[in-house]
Amino acid sequence: MNQSYCHFLLSATLSFSLMGSAAYADITIDGVLDEPEWLDANVYTNFVTVEPLTGDVAKYATEVRMITNKEGIFVSFKNFQPASVKRVNRRFPRDAQIEADRNVVSIDFDGTAVAAYDFTVGSANSRQDGIIGSGTYSGDWDGTWYSQTSTTGDYWFSEIHIPWTVAPMSGSSDGNKKMAVWFSRVVYNESLRFAFPNAFYTRTTFMEDWHPIEVKQVKASTLDWFPYASHNNNLKSPEGGTLTNDTKVGLDFIWRPNSTTQLTGAINPDFGQVESDDLVVNFSAFETFVAEKRPFFTENQALFSSAQPNEDVVLYTRRIGAGADSGLLDIDGAAKLTHYGKSVDMGLFAVREDMSEGGAGGDFISSRIQRKVDDLSFGHRLTHVTRDLLGREATVQGIDVKWDSSNKVRVAGQILHSDIKQVPNDANNYYAIDQQDYAGWMNWSYAPSDKWSHVLYFSHYGDEFEMNDMGFMRRNAFDEFFGYHRYDRRKYDQESSLLSGSNEFSYSYAENTAGDRLYAWAELKSEWIFKSTRKISVDLESTSSGWDDRITRGNGSYFRPSKYHAAVRYESPRGNDYVFSAKAYTGTEETQELYYGAYFSPQLYLTETLTLGGKVSFKKYREWLLWDGDASQLAGYQTDKYVGSIRLDWYPSNRQEVRLKFEWIGLDAEAINSYQLNNSGDLMASDIASSNFSVSDTAFQIRYRYQLAPLSDIFFVYSRGGFYGTEDGDEGPKTLFDKGWRGVQVESIIAKIRYRF
Predict the structure, then answer these.
(1) For the whole model, what pTM was predicted?
(2) Which fold has domain 221-225+248-271+290-449?
């Protein structure tokens, strides 16, 4: 690392290490509500119990005060919690699930119940934020806002400042802005949540039930620059290659000329692995979905959110920078423009990958327009990808609609059309494509009471419908019907040890477009939460026989027999310093042979700022049916699967975070049968023997983060990845672990600074 770069890091650290509590106007965000302005704030005290969803008056008093001025929205919580009630005061990294006492502020800046923003503060001032949609939630979004907490006697307090520039919003003609708010508080040790007003996300009218407010419209404009510099020092050279180091400099920026419009841009962005993905070994015919962690693709992303009820996604930003052949590509530039109008919201998204040196980089464009009129909202979505080297263009368009026909019924649907064209050339093996097709779905949800909820869903994907150039789709060429019914018991007798319980019954039927049944599936799940916060759940599943037309990767369909699954899960009282969850399960696989397994996941809160956790699991397959690509046949493997992970989180100060993360997956698979398919789709013994295999994959990372200011950080990251593979099939867990750890494939040190001006 060069001296000028080190000097830059050191200077930035010293410049901001003495920063204290932030002050805005006459309010200092220090968790102490001693400013006289709080005396004139709007006060909300009528909190009710929403978890469990009884609507009873809150067990412990909560007082929320709210002020709006030219600096933004200021919210304070005064939480009564007597000494007899354990206060869970744990620290967590930004955007992690806060498993502690916490306060939540949710704001619909337009009051339309289309999209809202969620700001959560833990009792130890951990922060989490996200975007709420109609029946959806995304924690990928990060906003610039401020908070602090304090404790005095039987009370704990939180103080929050949300600037007007945190998110785009529509303007008002008369200077008065209509919004809606929802406040909630979690008493973690008793599994209780209180809220004002009486609204909860299990209701179809969740966002419509929020408390309406009207404030003076503040015209705010900002221009934030996020320059970064990073250096990647590779300690392990690729096989047959030489050691390479990489230094990058780039710029992100956010311009809000007014409260309704925002432009987000990135020039030569850095997507180095300061946030590591979970380790996955996938032998199925279906792709693994990976959550987005890169700042540009999470900032100001609410308008482009495109999750569907079956978990497919029209805009899947992890495609960008991944390359057409799964080889990582740099990104030259990216821009995202959004505008929120009085009745119409619009957005445009464009990214260009690096196309130098004859690479298969592409241009990505996505647009979104939506409008809500009374109880009806509808919109149009487009994605377009061009890859010149491959001669490929892929366009997907969709029209979606949501209708709240009553306060108990919601209907949503979407029609999608894809158009894929590919001109044959040497880069695509002279493979021509010219295909167009449709897909669509409709979802009906009905909640007649807080005890009952029902969902019916139907989807159709055409044979040649394709959206994986810029979206995520598990498969095409199928029709599916799905039903879901849930009953919640919110109250038990005072003498009962139970706090709440639920029963769910789900079922689905799917067939491909040729009319072959893929499956008929049913699941019954029951859960009981005790007043001690222990939790027990039982899950029973049954799947009928059906055709598996994907397992052979296009080499015929297998008529699979029926299969079953059963599981029981236990979670210990969640407020203890030592907590754990455990699960045991069993079932039958594609050949009706038995599998069984279990996992144990402990968590030890050594102090309020030091947490050690992990997970160990084992799964035994009597016969795991996989596609053997080398022999072009199916094979049954007697398999042992081992998974282990360790994570340590330490917070030396409010601005520092140290994280250690280790993951391991090991497989011993012994081929016991080899199969071909006959004309009826049945398994027939093959004369060709498939090979055994053993696999061990390890990933280790130590990350140090120093927060200079909100969304401004210094990172130092050491990463190490190992892999081992053999045709033995019977290595055992110790050998797998040792060889997977020693077989280093990747080892690097990354230093990065990103600062917001």
Answers:
(1) 0.86
(2) Porin (2.40.160)
